[in-house]
Predict the structure.
Amino acid sequence: MKKPDFHILVCNSYRIAGNAQGACNRKNAPQMIQYLTEGAVDRGLDVTVSSTGCLNICAQGPIVVVQPQNVWYGGIESEDQMDELLDALENGEEVEKYKISD
Ligand code: FES
């Protein structure tokens, strides 16, 4: 199979029991998946967007992780912020002000 160029992970707060209950889910994470998917297509990026279980940094959520760069972003809630992340990905850059990883 051909792997996508990028994989964007959006925390959706799933717990071991399977329920989505947590900070990221309450802050618009379900809608973020659709927005990021459509935004990537619009930019011609080869991206898969997936939801994850709780990443254990709820206070900094919603959390978005971009692979293979392994860049972790926090506090991503608005469409403008997601556009910034996608624009940076398109340009081979990172958005420093939202990064929570080194
Ligand atoms: S619910 Fe997203 S990090 Fe915990």
